[in-house]
Amino acid sequence: MAARASEGSTPFERACAAAGELRIRIGPEELASLASDNDMREREVEAIATVFGYLAEKRRRSTVETLLRLSRLPSKEPKTFDNFDFGRIQGRDACALAELSALSDLYAGRNIAFIGPGGIGKTHLAQAYGRECCLRGLKTYYVKASELADKISSAIKRSNASRMVNTLVKPSCLIIDEVGRRKFDRECTDLLFDVIDRRYEKEGPNTMILTSNAVASDWHEFFEGDDTLLCALDRVFDKASVFMMRGPSYRGRELDTFSVEAVPSATKQRGMRDATA
């Protein structure tokens, strides 16, 4: 998306910058000439800039909403960088994790992998990254590995594999969550590695984000294929930021435990006393 005009720019520049976001081509000189020919005062030009700015912001919000809907990122209790507890993260490279929100890897064409035990925030960070991409107007697609295997198998059966590949290649950010939960058969592996190859050559902002409980050296166990084919997996890590995460699970942080004890009812106790009287 186009950057917003700075607050210190002239009304003509602000109006033209907003018009550009609306795909209306007009320069400050042209707008100034139009204002002069129509005896428009500065406040009238300010009004034009305000209207164009409002419409541009409305367009941005609509675009973001569409991107989020198409991304398949969960909309209920969305995961963001703001609601991730970075205070729990320690270690010499903790700062690298905190800098993910800048999307440097995306613009550098680097892939990202979050590897570690369950419950430490891998999926949260992956989804937060994808959401940040959407907020910046970049297409994102999120899918769990087990679901992806089903989608690829279904596309192959319907002879619609090429469309499935395009769906996975087009997004600037492709997130595959929980690699290793499901083994890919030979056909699915062929198609997935075709996606990897095409994304490897893709220009512009581009990253794949993968999460897994297993270390990358064991990932070949989750895909069926000969050694030549499985070598394509190395392309995922040819340019990549891999975060090896350790620590206790964060799940259950809002769990409340109550201790209760069942005792005989008062009614039954009274009945027993009456019977023995």
- Order of helix and strand elements from N to C terminus: HHHHHEHEHHEHEHEH
End-to-end C-alpha gap: 87 Å
DSSP, total strands: 5
Radius of gyration: 27 Å
Low-pLDDT residue spans: none
Average pLDDT figure:
86
Helix tally equals 11
> Which class best fits the helix and strand makeup?
alpha/beta
| Net shape | globular
Describe the structure.
This protein has 277 residues and is of the alpha/beta class. It has helices spanning 11-21, 28-37, 42-71, 94-98, 104-108, 122-135, 145-157, 161-169, 186-200, 227-230, 266-276, and strands at 111-115, 140-144, 173-179, 207-212, 240-244. A five-stranded parallel sheet has the order 2-3-4-1-5, with helices on both faces. β3 (173-179), α9 and β4 form a beta-alpha-beta unit. α1 (11-21) crosses α2 (28-37), α1 runs parallel beside α3 and α3 packs antiparallel against α6 (122-135). The longest helix is centred in the first third of the chain and has 30 residues, at 42-71. The protein starts with 10 loop residues before the first helix and ends with a helix. The model has no long low-confidence stretch (mean pLDDT 86).
Keywords:
5-stranded parallel β-sheet, alpha/beta, 46% helix, 11 helices
